[in-house]
Amino acid sequence: MASLAAGARGTWHGSMRTLVVAVRARDRPGLFTRIARILHGLGCNLATSLGYRADEEARLLLVAECPLEPEELVAELRTRLREELGEEPEVDAGEIGPDAASIVAEFVREKPGLVTVLEAYLEPPDLFDALLRLPPEARRRVYPLLSPKTLAWILSEAEEEILEEMLHTLSLRQVARALQELDPDEAVDVLQRLPEALRKRLLQELPEEIRREAAKLLRYPPETVGGIMTTSVPVARAEDTVQDVLQLLRRGDYDVTDTVVVVDGEGRFVGLVTVEELLRAPPGEKLSRLARRPPIVIGPEEDREEAARLMLRYELRRLPVVDEQGRFLGLVTIEDVAQVLAEEAAEDIALLGGMEKPRERYRLASVADLVRTRLPWLLLIYVIESLTASVIKGYEDVIERIAVAAAFIPLIMDTGGNVGSQASSMVVRALALGEISERSRSDILYVVLKELATAATIGAIMALLGFIFSYIVGGNTRLAISIALTLFIVVIFADLVGASLPIIARRLGLDPAAISSPFVTTIVDVSVAVIYLSLVAKLVLGL
Amino acid sequence: MASLAAGARGTWHGSMRTLVVAVRARDRPGLFTRIARILHGLGCNLATSLGYRADEEARLLLVAECPLEPEELVAELRTRLREELGEEPEVDAGEIGPDAASIVAEFVREKPGLVTVLEAYLEPPDLFDALLRLPPEARRRVYPLLSPKTLAWILSEAEEEILEEMLHTLSLRQVARALQELDPDEAVDVLQRLPEALRKRLLQELPEEIRREAAKLLRYPPETVGGIMTTSVPVARAEDTVQDVLQLLRRGDYDVTDTVVVVDGEGRFVGLVTVEELLRAPPGEKLSRLARRPPIVIGPEEDREEAARLMLRYELRRLPVVDEQGRFLGLVTIEDVAQVLAEEAAEDIALLGGMEKPRERYRLASVADLVRTRLPWLLLIYVIESLTASVIKGYEDVIERIAVAAAFIPLIMDTGGNVGSQASSMVVRALALGEISERSRSDILYVVLKELATAATIGAIMALLGFIFSYIVGGNTRLAISIALTLFIVVIFADLVGASLPIIARRLGLDPAAISSPFVTTIVDVSVAVIYLSLVAKLVLGL
User: Fold this and answer.
1) B426·A362 Cβ contact <8 A
2) Of A244, B183, B429, B523, which residue has the fewest beta carbons closer than 10 angstroms?
3) Residues in a beta bridge with A297
4) Chain centre distance of CA A198
């Protein structure tokens, strides 16, 4: 459990969790004091309490650090209040974060004005999680009340839907004020998502300095290296001294503050110096003597995933971005990379789940949106699977004569599908780790031979099991032989298909995860139908 | 394309890629000069060349920055050498990194001694990729030749198999020397993977300071926060001045150099100060006035994934780790988090592919290892799917009477399986983003209702399509109605199952990705068999 460190909220203690507690009870004098006393008795430190009265009822929202699980607290609070008040009030509690979001949302929906107080106790993501649980009208009432810091966070995280809501309720100046809280590259990401007319008007509200940065960055799409690089970086010349640069760091307001970029007279990248090295070097030392070249640099149009891959591979914290002439443009930081990795992981999960990454958050997507996201894949698979149905239909006479043969079709198809997706994940991982290159012929040959050997072993085991099981269920030796043979062939075939698809995808410049699972399933299913039913026809029925 | 910045290797130019080129030709005087001239003519800068002579043949390995794709270079070099020499030499080339690894491996296999030169031109991961492509005997000959820096990198990255190879070929002192090149937390990760006796002997070879750090860290398993935290951090007291701390930074050799941790007299965590803030503050200022508390701190036994999630959520670069009494233990850095995210993504891909994350690299795993990794899942699914087979077998008489009914079973199962895994990925993502909490009853109700509405819509569409398609193929209205009805029911059922599994997994403290896809498939398959075939029996055959 992570505990919120209580900045303004008293001393932090280990093993505590910060809870949000909601109480609804008949209003009476001293109610709050009793609750506070009970919480104190349970070992909690009360950070804040907000409350209001409605229809004879008191509604309280408390933030407290407690040595209890939320459920324990609710039970205790309920029992003790019943003992003291003679009635059982409504109590709810959740750990700060997503667990407490619906409690906070309920409260904000009834009294939007209280967000201004809550902002001091909830971090922007916690507040935003509560807002996401509100109906749009309620959310619109809240935006104008929020601080620029919270607004900035929401702007940078929010999907189109939220962005639109905000732009309709906030003044241009409020939005501009919030944008200034962001790093230039984040502000530009927001600007890029706006309609051009609005973007221009907003740019005019921004200070000259940010406008200049924005102009530089607006050229690069968000999924490129240029789209995630940071330009707010201390840059010095090779002939500058350590003293000069320390002066520069003291004056400037940069997003990267632990590294100084060294360039030559024409702005070409020379190397990096860490602040640690600056602190240790003699004040008169020239930067040219300290600057070190990282093992790689990258161009601004490259895929941001490539930057992430390279920085992880070579364990770099800062990757310089340079243009074709070697001029320094910006730095990709490991912070940016962590963000990219998290987003790409979400994308992969969506792809492996058989759909495009949804454009919006689940909470904001209407049912129609969800259907639109999910249906295309389903239809595609459906159409291809219709082929399987037609193939099986072609063997109608076989099935008519030996109906039990049909019982084993799903089993064989599933085994093949699983083998295929196992082989795919193996190869995706080996590609990601650089163990095989999709462009090296000897590497590909290696994969094919290794997979052949593995699949033949697995196939033999599955065939044996398939024989035994189907003989027990079906009681027909020839059918059992057909099943065993099909399993053996299909396991090898599915494995090779599954292993090849990621390599082919990479060679075509596609995301290997995009192409694998559903395709393997489909290819396997059709081939199972053909191989199995013709074997049954031949071996069992002698057709 | 990322270009290697040429440190000692001449000036770096934009739009160049660093290539490794191998040439085999009949040995003759002036051969190398010709090749160098051709490369120069193609716009390449030669960084280095290594060569040796064997059986009248010259074998050359060159590293060069070229404005060409490897394939283009190979073609050009071949043509021009043929023109000049009257014979066509063997030429191969690949971009530095995985693409070139098999070329380098071939060279090192023949002349292991050359790695000492190659080390100056290849980063450790590039060299390691080549080593992975060697047979174990050849690899064993190389280890003793490598520098401590390269050995350190391999030790920290290597799986058990490689670790064992290294420990058998290197002296204890060589390993200890390499470990000192690593950050303490990385060194401890290596130590934790060693047998206890060996670990103790190695610890004795290490300097006192590292031994002390190691003792602190060895308590925490690698997948906990304690296992990834960095302890080599500048720590100062609240009453220290800015001047004192700058002095501390100048003297010390820390892994985190951009942040100073401030603690009180009892070592309890007070806050963080960035070096930037130190540079700007008056030299006599007390740290207590500068220290800022991050919004959260974390305990050392927490899951490292939880630290990653929180740092991304609250956009933190350094997360303090404290014990139950609030004493400072170490920092989790965003660099650590990037590594964790990459590893977890690999794990998720393996899980979604239907297997445990393999313990070893693909290259190192024998066929038997691969079979062992993959077979358990396949058998599990096979056993459960046998249930499907038995269920279908129970409807043998139905299928016998209307064999065409069997043709549609895979189609319906696949549709259900896909709907289920879509719903799973949606919910996994919403959980990860904090849009829903697995512990909030109102959030779960929200998901159920939204999924019901979505699934009913999708189900209706699929049912309609199913009716049309199966009527065309089967020509039987009642069969088509059975199929449509089954599709409608199965889509809703599969969706709800798929959506619930990640929530249940999280409540049980399991990884949601671990439980989803294959389970959904299996549950769906069995229910399709029952629902569909009993509907066919009733509606079509009137049984």
Assistant:
1) yes
2) A244
3) B3
4) 29
Q: Does A392 touch chain B (CB under 8 A)?
A: yes
Considering only residues A512 and A333, tell me which one the structure prediction assigns the higher pLDDT. A333
Is pLDDT of A458 > 90?
A: yes
Q: What is the pLDDT of residue A56?
A: 86
Q: Does B393 touch chain A (CB under 8 A)?
A: yes
Q: Which residue of A312, A389, A434 is in closest CB contact with B97?
A: A434
Please give the average per-residue pLDDT across B398-417, as a whole number: 92
Q: Do A374 and B98 touch (CB under 8 A)?
A: no
A-interface mutation test, from B11, B102, B527, most A Cβ less than 10 A away: B102
Q: Nearest CA to B195 among B228, B158, B153, B167?
A: B167
B326 touches chain A (CB under 8 A): yes
Distance CA B77, CA B69 (A): 12
Q: How far apart are CA B106 and CA B120, in angstroms?
A: 18
Residue A372 to residues A355, A514, B223, B246, B470: CA-CA distances in angstroms? 10, 18, 39, 58, 24
CB contact under 8 A, A349 and B377: no
pLDDT in the model for residue B8: 31
Q: Please, which residues 17-76 of chain B have a Cβ atom closer than 8 Å to chain A?
A: 70
Above 80 in pLDDT, residue B349? no
Using the beta-carbon criterion (under 8 Å), do A292 and B2 form an inter-chain contact? no
**How far does A169 lie from chain B, in Å, by closest CA?**
23
Taking CB atoms within 8 Å and a gap of at least 24, the contacts of A236-240 are A236/A260, A236/A261, A236/A262, A236/A263, A236/A273, A236/A287, A237/A262, A237/A263, A237/A264, A237/A265, A237/A287, A238/A262, A238/A263, A238/A264, A238/A270, A238/A286, A238/A287, A238/A288, A238/A291, A239/A286, A239/A287, A239/A288, A240/A286, A240/A287
Which residues touch B372 (CB under 8 Å, ≥6 apart)? none
Give B534-543 pLDDT, tens digit per residue: 999 999 888 7
Residue of A nearest to B130 (CA): A435
Residue-wise pLDDT tens digits, A324-334: 888 999 999 99
Q: CA Rg, chain B, in Å?
A: 31
Contact yes or no for A352 and B1 at CB 8 A: no
Q: Is B299 an 8 Å CB contact of chain A?
A: yes
Angle, CA of A186, A18 and B300, to the nearest 5° = 80
HSE-CB at A507 with a 13 A cutoff on CA atoms is 12
Binary contact (A257, B249; C-beta < 8 A): no
Long-range contacts of A159-168 (CB under 8 A, 24+ apart): A159/A359, A159/A360, A159/A361, A159/A364, A160/A193, A160/A359, A160/A360, A161/A360, A161/A361, A161/A364, A162/A364, A163/A190, A163/A193, A163/A194, A165/A136, A165/A139, A165/A140, A167/A194, A167/A198, A168/A140
pLDDT range class, residue A4, cuts 50, 70, 90: very low
| Mean pLDDT to the nearest integer, A263-286 | 93
Q: Write down the ipTM of this complex.
A: 0.83
Q: Which residues of A touch B301 (CB under 8 A)?
A: none
Q: What is the reported pLDDT for A364? A: 85
The more confident residue out of B192 and A158 is B192
Q: What is the pLDDT of residues A460-476, one digit of tens each?
A: 999 999 999 999 988 89
Q: Which tens digit of pLDDT belongs to each residue from A105-164?
A: 999 999 999 999 999 889 999 999 999 999 999 999 999 999 999 999 999 887 788 888
With CA atoms as reference, the chain A residue closest to B432 would be: A346
Q: Kindly tell me if the per-residue pLDDT of B7 is higher than 60.
A: no
Domains of chain B: 235-347 (3.10.580.10), 367-540 (1.10.357.20)
Note whether B418 contacts A125, CB cutoff 8 Å.
Answer: no
Given this model, what pLDDT does residue B242 score?
95
